[in-house]
C-alpha cells in the first residue's frame, strides 16, 4: 500500500464518486459508455446519478490520465449519435488500488465500533 | 420526442461541454429513454428525461467552471470592460481640448461618443482574439451598464441615449468580427 501511495502524486486519492465510476467502468469492460455506467451505478448502489455527473467525473479522470475514451460507431437507437467508450488506464488501476487500500487500512479494526454505534 | 426538443437539449449541453461529448451524452439519454419507454409511460419518461437534463446541467456547469472555460471568459470580458473604460477616458482627455474652439454645443458629445465607440471596438477585438464568448459577454455588459447608467443619470437627448445603447454593443461585436475575419485570413 505504501509503495502504491508513493507512486501517486500527493493528494491524488480518488473521491468516492470517482471510485464508484471507475469500478463501474471496470465491471462493464468493453461495454462501458455513459448510459451503461450510469445504470450500473444506479443498480448497484441505489444512488440516483445524472448522466452529466457521470460525464463530468469521467472527464476529470481522463484529465488525470486514469481513464481514456474513444468514439464508437453511430447507432440508430441513439438517433445516429456515436457512443463514447471508456476504459481504465494503468495509472487508473494504480490510483484505484491505492485509494481502496487506504480506506481498507483506515477502517481496519473499527468494524466492532460501527456495530456498537 | 420532437426534433426541436432534442436540438434544444443538445444546444444547452454544447454550451457546457465540447460538441462531440454533448452529442454522445444526448445519444446516451435517447438510448435510455427508448429503454424506459418499453416499461413506463410517455409522461413519466419525459419527466425522467428533463430531470436528467436539469441535474446534468448543474454538474456540467460546475465541471466547466473547474475547467476554467467560464472563468477565463468572464475574467476576459470584465478585464476588457475595465480596459475600455480606461481607453475611453484617455481618448476623451486627449481629444476634448480640440473641441474647445468649436462653437457647436455637440462637439464634446461627439468626442465622447467617438471615444466610447473606438474603445469598445478595440476591446471587442482583443476580447474576441482571446475568446469569442468574452466579446459577446462584453457586448452584453456594455448594453446592461449603459441601460443602468441612462436610467440613473440625468436625461440627455434621445439621439445621444439611443446612440450609446446601440453603438456600444455594435462596436464591440464589430471589433470581434474584425478579429475573427483577420484570424480566418491568417489561416
How would you concisely characterize the structure shown here?
With 117 residues, chain A is of the alpha+beta class.
Describe the structure.
The complex is a heterodimer of chains A (117) and B (187). Residues 1-7 of chain A have low confidence and may be disordered. In chain A, a hairpin with a 5-residue loop joins β1 and β2 (81-88). In chain A, α2 (16-28) crosses α3 and α2 crosses α4 (51-63). Chain A has helices at residues 2-7, 16-28, 34-45, 51-63, 90-107, 111-116, and strands at 67-75, 81-88. Chain A is 58% helix and 15% strand. Chain A contains six helices and two strands; from the N terminus they run ααααββαα. Chain A is elongated and about 55 Å long. By secondary structure, chain B is an all-alpha fold. Chain B is built from seven helices and no strands. In chain B, α2 packs antiparallel against α3, α4 (69-99) packs antiparallel against α5 and α5 (107-130) runs antiparallel to α6 (132-152). The chains are: A alpha+beta (117), B mainly alpha (187). Chain A binds chain B through residues 33-35, 38-39, 50-53, 55-56, 59-60, 71, 74-75, 77-79, 81-84, and chain B through 6, 13, 17, 20-21, 23-32, 34, 52, 55-60, 62-63, 66-67.
Strand order of the largest sheet of chain A: 1-2
CATH class of chain A: Mainly Alpha
In total, the number of domains of chain B comes to 2
Question: Roughly what percent helix of chain B?
Answer: over 70%
Order of helices and strands of chain A: HHHHEEHH
Q: Whole-number radius of gyration of chain A?
A: 16 Å
Mean pLDDT of chain A: 88
| Largest beta-sheet characterization of chain B | none
Strand content of chain A: 5-15%
Characterize the largest beta sheet of chain A: strand count, sense, and whether it forms a barrel: 2 strands, antiparallel
End-to-end CA span of chain A: 29 Å
Shape of chain A: elongated
Number of strands of chain B: 0
What's the alpha carbon Rg of chain B, rounded to whole Å?
23 Å
Mean pLDDT of chain B: 84
Amino acid at each position: 500500500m505504501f509503495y502504491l501511495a508513493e507512486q501517486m502524486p500527493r493528494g491524488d486519492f480518488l473521491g468516492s464518486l470517482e471510485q464508484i465510476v471507475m469500478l463501474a467502468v471496470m465491471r462493464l469492460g468493453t461495454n462501458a459508455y455513459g448510459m451503461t455506467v450510469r445504470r450500473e451505478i444506479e443498480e448497484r448502489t441505489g444512488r440516483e446519478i445524472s448522466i452529466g455527473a457521470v460525464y463530468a467525473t469521467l472527464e476529470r479522470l481522463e484529465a488525470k490520465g486514469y481513464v481514456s475514451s474513444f468514439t464508437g460507431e453511430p447507432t440508430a437507437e441513439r438517433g445516429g449519435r456515436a457512443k463514447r467508450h471508456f476504459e481504465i488506464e494503468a495509472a487508473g488501476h494504480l490510483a484505484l488500488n491505492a485509494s481502496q487500500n487506504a480506506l481498507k487500512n483506515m477502517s481496519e479494526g473499527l468494524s466492532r465500533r460501527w456495530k456498537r454505534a | 420526442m420532437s426534433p426541436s426538443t432534442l436540438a434544444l437539449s443538445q444546444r444547452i449541453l454544447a454550451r457546457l461541454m465540447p460538441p462531440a461529448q454533448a452529442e454522445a451524452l444526448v445519444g446516451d439519454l435517447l438510448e435510455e429513454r427508448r429503454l424506459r419507454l418499453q416499461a413506463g409511460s410517455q409522461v413519466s419518461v419525459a419527466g425522467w428525461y428533463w430531470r436528467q437534463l436539469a441535474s446534468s446541467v448543474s454538474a456540467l456547469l460546475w465541471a466547466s467552471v473547474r475547467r476554467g472555460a467560464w472563468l477565463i471568459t468572464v475574467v476576459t470580458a470584465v478585464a476588457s470592460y475595465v480596459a475600455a473604460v480606461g481607453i475611453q477616458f484617455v481618448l476623451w482627455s486627449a481629444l476634448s481640448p480640440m473641441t474647445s474652439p468649436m462653437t457647436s454645443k455637440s462637439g464634446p458629445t461627439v468626442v465622447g461618443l467617438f471615444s466610447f465607440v473606438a474603445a469598445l471596438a478595440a476591446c471587442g477585438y482583443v476580447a474576441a482574439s482571446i475568446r469569442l464568448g468574452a466579446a459577446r459577454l462584453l457586448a452584453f455588459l456594455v448594453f446592461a451598464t449603459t441601460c443602468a447608467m441612462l436610467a440613473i443619470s440625468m436625461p440627455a437627448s434621445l439621439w445621444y441615449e439611443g446612440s450609446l445603447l446601440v453603438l456600444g454593443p455594435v462596436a464591440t461585436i464589430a471589433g470581434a468580427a474584425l478579429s475573427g475575419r483577420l484570424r480566418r485570413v491568417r489561416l
